[in-house]
Specification:
Blueprint (H helix, E strand, L loop, with lengths): L4 E3 L2 E3 L8 H13 L4 H37 L7 E3 L5 H4 L4 E6 L6 H12 L1 H6 L2 E6 L7 H6 L5 E5 L5 E5 L5 H9 L2 H12 L1
Parallel strand pairs: 3-5, 4-5
Antiparallel strand pairs: 1-2, 4-6, 6-7
Helix pairs in contact: 1-2
Amino acid sequence: MKHLFVFGKTRFGPAEPLLGSAGILGLAALLAMGLPSAGGAQQAAAAAADDSAIVAEETGSQGARDAETMAEVADPPTDPLVRPGASVELDDLMWLHRPIVVFADSPADPRFHEQMERLADGAEALLERDVIVLTDTDPGVTSALRKKLRPRGFMLVLIGKDGGVKLRKPQPWTVRELSRTIDKFPSRLREVEERRGS
């Protein structure tokens, strides 16, 4: 008799014929009853069928949970702070957000990675200031952002809620530097006053 040992999701043993846990339960029931008569064999077969139905239900629900887990890993929740810039129109963000646009000629650009790490480290401060980060690392695609802002290589652009360009930098900036700049905007000063009043 060939055996199949199952530990977690890893199977050890021959691939064919597979003796699943339902078959093992049925075999255990047969052995517990001793050598069955013809009628006893039918009862044991029915018990093994019931066991296999229970195991099928359990593994089916486990399979559904595994599929959900895999879907979550394959499609992680999107970051509310960062969006790809190629699909965004700046006019849609006007008076709602302060876009920070990070351009690079390649996603492998070390300055791009450094800038994104700095922004991620200070995400809370940026969200408090209604900042949204737009990224564009493909110069081959002429996006609306590239047409309007005309970057050369790496470039960081801060845009106000009014749609005007407030800052252009050819090197990565810290969230602290960006926050200080934003906090000097008249619109930001008004927001702080309104929040204090309420």
